[in-house]
Design goal:
single chain; Papain-like_cys_pep_sf; 6-stranded antiparallel sheet; PG_Endopeptidase_C40; cysteine-type peptidase activity; endopeptidase fold (from Nostoc punctiforme); 353 residues; hydrolase; Lysozyme; NLP_P60_dom; two-stranded parallel ribbon
């Protein structure tokens, strides 16, 4: 197969309408119901077993022993079913046994090389020193196989496995062939996860989150499935800063529109002390820096944020980890004195039970 990889690679609009005017609704309105029954989580996909490692079947005996061990080790480390890695290795080079150009040395006509058929630039971006020998060699299966696992992970595996395999080689016939081999290696009883919607675990909030923060997060979660458009202000599309601005606006709190304005607006919080509803900032995008971050998301908890990432990201708006290398810092708008007073005033407006 000829790899054609890139280097780096249903809408819930009605839910947004449910939250219009929440600034004027008593704060104890049942946001928890929206989060934990129906609503956002109604069509979620359980991906908890997406990275499970199935047992090898008889057909796996045809895989060279050294390659089988490498597939299984990389699968376990990166949470990718090992048999999918084996399927890719089989389709690409018959587990390194192909005599075609670009397998043991050199490149094929598309510029791919090694047992997992990496383009040089792609391998450079995702290379893993699997055998800890101080080198990253795309012709060495000990490096190439875990690098393939890392690349699949980057592209959405294991929760969006078909998407990740398609990114490996832009052909749906290729995807089907890889998965056919993956099934054979484990005796046929194997189903991958292709979660194009919402991960059920992403709807969970830590205990003791206040109703006001629940409402903000619930609004932001309800925007999943909508596109990222730079400069958009909703309700059909958002960018990173307009999404968090709108989430705060739902509870009657106004924060600035752009990331550059939002960064100095909230009270700075040390990393590791962030709470749900806090804003997390990143040194990402043109004109940004460690003291001038250009990307923002909102903390949900457990190391995750709800964020409008980019137009080509999958998902464009979704729940992702904020513990990244470009993470600059955290702010807490709710700790501002004027916001504290506003929250108190809103709480007073609540009718007695």
């Amino acid at each position: 197969m000829t790899p054609r990889r890139l280097l780096l690679a249903g809408a819930l609009g009605v839910a947004a309408l449910l939250f219009v005017g929440l600034a004027f609704v008593p704060l104890m309105f049942g946001a928890g119901q929206f989060l934990f029954s129906g609503g956002v989580g109604g069509n979620c996909v359980n991906v908890s077993e997406a990275g499970a490692q199935p047992a090898a079947a008889n057909d796996a005996k045809a895989v060279p022993v050294t390659y089988l061990a490498l597939y299984q080790a990389a699968g376990k480390k990166y949470g990718i079913p090992w048999n999918v890695l084996a399927g890719i290795g089989k389709v690409e080079t018959d587990h390194g046994r192909s005599t075609q150009p670009g397998v043991s040395s050199g490149e094929n006509y598309a510029g791919a090389g090694g047992p997992m058929q990496f383009l040089a630039a792609t391998f450079k971006a995702f290379a893993v020193d699997g055998n800890k020998d101080g080198k990253k060699d795309r012709y060495d299966p000990a490096d190439a196989i875990p690098s393939a696992a890392a690349y699949l992970k980057h592209n959405g595996a294991p929760s969006r496995m078909k998407t990740a395999i398609f990114q490996y080689n832009h052909s749906w016939d290729y995807v089907d062939l890889v998965l056919d081999w993956a099934k054979r290696y484990v005796g046929g009883d194997f189903k991958i996860v292709q979660a194009n919607g919402i991960d059920c675990a992403d709807n969970e909030l830590p205990a003791n989150v206040g109703e006001l923060v629940k409402k903000m997060i619930a609004f932001a979660l309800a925007q999943r499935g909508k596109p990222y458009v730079f400069g958009a202000n909703g309700p059909d599309a958002w960018d990173c800063s307009s999404l968090v601005q709108a989430a705060y606006r739902q509870v009657g709190l106004n924060i600035p529109r752009t990331t550059f304005e939002q960064w100095p607006f909230g009270v700075k919080v040390g990393k590791g002390k962030e709470q749900p509803g806090d804003l997390v900032f990143f040194n990402s995008g043109p004109g940004t820096g460690a003291d001038n971050p250009g990307h923002v998301g909102m903390v949900i908890g457990k190391g995750k944020m709800i964020v409008a990432s980019c137009s080509s990201c999958v998902p464009a708006i979704g729940v992702k980890s904020y513990k990244r290398s470009d993470w600059v810092g955290v702010t807490r708008p709710l700790a501002r004195p004027d916001f504290k007073k506003k929250v108190s005033d809103l709480a007073v407006q609540q009718p007695a039970d």
